[in-house]
Amino acid sequence: MTKYNFGCGNFKKPGFINVDVRPDSAADVVAEAWDTSQFLQGAAEFVYSRHMLEHLDPDDARLTLRAWLGLLRPGGLLNVIVPDVAFHARQILGLATSSFPNQFDHACAGFWGWRDEARGGSREDAHRWGYTEHSLSAELLSAGFVQVQRATEGPDREAWHLNIVALRPI
Length: 170
Description:
Rossmann fold, SAM-dependent_MTases_sf, globular, Conserved domain protein, alpha/beta, 7-stranded mixed beta sheet, single chain
């Protein structure tokens, strides 16, 4: 079974083909997220991406979603996790809280990324776009995915993670 992990950074996911744009990452393959030409099309069982899509400009993100659809076999599963900017908007107003000690810093990071080294980030960690459940679902449907829904169980189930699963049509 072929599984991809796009935007792996320094966290190699066992059993996956790990892909990242950074040459100094833990990637098996260094490539842009939308450049899937070197992979077998229409055969993957699973495409996973955790907190990467928000680092792309909207046009590149759309291109990426279409490329990932092409990788998947009919009925194959996509799991995309991004910050939920609706949660972070409530958080910055004091209407929602996370497990992070500094709610303002966490809210800002949800919008713009952990950009400074003092907080473990870098300039490369800047977010270029943000998503709500509605906006990401619309992008996935537009790219050709079906049965788009929010995952509420398992890892990354905290409200500030927008954890979406979708299928390639059969």
